[in-house]
Description:
This protein is an alpha/beta fold. The protein has one domain: Aldolase class I (TIM Barrel). 44% of the residues lie in helices and 15% in strands. The chain contains twelve helices and eight strands.
Amino acid sequence: MRKKLIAGNWKSNLAKSNAIQLAEAILEQGILVDFELAIFPPEIFIDSILEVVKSTVKVGAQNCSQYTEGAFTGETTALQLASAGVQMALAGHSERRHLFAETNEVVKLKIDKVLSAGLTPVFCCGEALETRKANEQNNWVEQQLEESLFHLTQADFSKVIIAYEPIWAIGTGVVATPKEAEEMHEFIRKKIAAKYDAATAESTRILYGGSVKADNAKALFSCPNIDGALVGGASLKANEFLAIANAAK
Ligand code: PEP
């Protein structure tokens, strides 16, 4: 049985005091029985947020370097993240792909570094609107899986969480219908079964991301292949974020 994960990506929002307040509010109100919570704060606040949430809520990084260590000004490595107590890292978020030109190859390198540092990668994939209009979304996502994840051994792959995030739904207020999301999640799970095996596919958590709110979460979470959400905008308010989480009960 896959436990649902509700993850909040705070992106480059919030000053330090607001970030700490948000973490405190999530901790105060969150009762973590039937689901897991994770937050991805701005990297510079990770230490302070870890002090607030301790081990109750998982804390992840929004990005990590594809390099191991050395002269890479401005980069934070997976080993540094692990040494700071971070447990997860996003790889392949569409904003990083588009604004920072991260290719499937770069995402693959990041996945490898995240895994070798002992962190859990949250691999983001998803198609643009033109791709969906051309009904090419399955081919697109399959290629992302092939080029960034399917080189992994079964043992490493089993540590990965996948987030399907159609780009047309991110930050737009346009959410994929439960049918659209479920079809893609089922497709991804079938590809995992074909590449690895049925048990691996069955145990892989596949989150949906893209304009998830308290009022659309329940319908998404009731789909058999949707195992939680990666939430952007709505994760910046504790009440809304926890209402989404409660929809996973
Ligand atoms: C995201 O950026 O991962 C995301 C899902 O954003 P939003 O919920 O704001 O669409």
